[in-house]
Write a structure and sequence with these properties.
Elements lengths: L14 H24 L3 E3 L3 H12 L2 H19 L14 E5 L2 H5 L6 E5 L4 E9 L3 E3 L2 E2 L5 H6 L5 H19 L10 H24 L2 H11 L4 E7 L4 E7 L27 E6 L6 E6 L4 E7 L9 E9 L5 E6 L2
Parallel strand pairs: 1-2, 4-7
Antiparallel strand pairs: 2-3, 3-4, 5-12, 6-12, 7-8, 8-13, 9-10, 10-11, 11-12
InterPro entries: Restrct_endonuc_II_HaeIII
Pfam families: RE_HaeIII
Keywords: Endonuclease, Hydrolase, Nuclease
Length: 331
């Protein structure tokens, strides 16, 4: 298919992954310090995920660790006004804190940190984002039925026939140990045909299942549990907390205390208004829905070496106006 350049040595960078895990640990530590100051009984649940996050945190330089802690502490201040269950001393039981394994995300739970009171059957979760706002990094390959994975609705035979030549080409490149930088026309010969097939299949599924697919898409991306998203923006020296209250479990009052701020219930979309390429782009699709929802799907290679699998960087580019979003500048 494509013309090739001379192969180069592969370079790997795991910096963002480490920082993401480290920020989870910074957020957990900030919660624990805050709860201790409030006189709330808590217990940290030991796990492999906790150990990994702590190790990555300790590998960072002192200034970066301090910055993460400041960002996490700013987020905790906002959550105090939203969740009385976290600080009500009259509530029964110890507050259990845990960092979740990555497998939970694959199974549909996007929360990185979970706080739980077993005695009252109450829990709350947090998704921690270090300088990015992506909601999912899903893959496309010849063996992946994204319709079944995302919606429980299988993709058509036509879809797999359309993507087969592209992934066969990539498999040949993999065997020859090519790098993505060796492909001169990767956008036209890989990204565009795959995105075209993806869009056609998304439209096919929507025709077959009517109003279900927009709802199922957002549920797949945001998970099966309500959560708060904690985002640090180092360049602006601020933290953001957003409340994704899809199922009505956030912002609950206790017997003794009501939340200071309201987190509205979000209505899921039921219609696609438009599915098309981002202007002047060959690697990004914009999906516009009713209710203010809009999504960006940017396809990209997951590593420098060619492999017959690509990733979507999926972002929420539009959200309902009632989404609770609060900014706290760092002290």
């Amino acid at each position: 298919m494509s013309q090739l350049r001379k192969p180069k040595e592969e370079k790997k960078d795991f910096g963002q992954t480490k920082k993401g895990k480290a920020f989870e640990y910074a957020c957990l530590s900030a919660f624990e310090q805050w709860l201790s100051k409030k006189g709330i009984a808590w217990e940290e649940q030991k796990s492999k995920a906790l150990k990994t996050a702590e190790e990555f945190y300790m590998q960072l330089d002192k200034d970066t660790r301090c910055q993460m802690s400041v960002a996490a502490t700013a987020a905790v201040k906002m959550l105090e006004r939203l969740e009385p269950n976290l600080t009500d001393k009259e509530e029964k039981g110890v507050l259990l804190l845990r960092i979740q394994e990555d497998a939970k995300g694959i199974a549909g739970d996007v929360r990185d940190i979970v706080c739980e009171r077993k005695e009252t059957n109450w829990e709350i979760g947090f998704s921690c984002k270090h300088n990015h706002m992506a909601v999912k990094h899903s893959r496309l390959s010849y063996t992946i039925d994204f319709g079944k994975q995302w919606f429980g609705k299988s993709c058509s035979k036509e879809y797999f026939e359309e993507i087969e030549p592209v992934f066969s080409f990539l498999e040949t490149c993999r065997k020859e140990k090519m790098l993505w930088s060796d492909l001169v026309r990767k956008e036209d010969e890989v990204y565009v045909p795959l995105l075209d097939a993806f869009v056609r299949e998304l439209k096919r599924l929507t025709l077959l299942h009517k109003r279900e697919i927009p709802t199922l898409l957002v549920r797949y991306l945001l998970g099966k549990n309500d959560f708060y998203k904690i985002i640090t923006q180092d360049g602006k020296r601020q933290s953001i907390v957003q409340g994704y209250n899809l199922y009505g479990t956030l912002n609950k009052a206790t017997k003794n205390k009501k939340p200071d701020n309201k987190v509205h219930l979000l209505k899921l979309p039921t219609k696609f208004y438009d599915i098309s390429y981002k202007e002047n782009s060959k690697n990004t699709i914009i999906v516009t829905c009713d209710g203010g929802w809009a999504l960006s799907f940017r396809i990209h290679n997951a590593s420098s070496r060619v492999e017959p699998s690509l990733k979507f960087d999926i972002q929420l580019t539009g959200v309902p106006q009632v989404l609770h979003s609060q900014i706290e500048p760092w002290e």
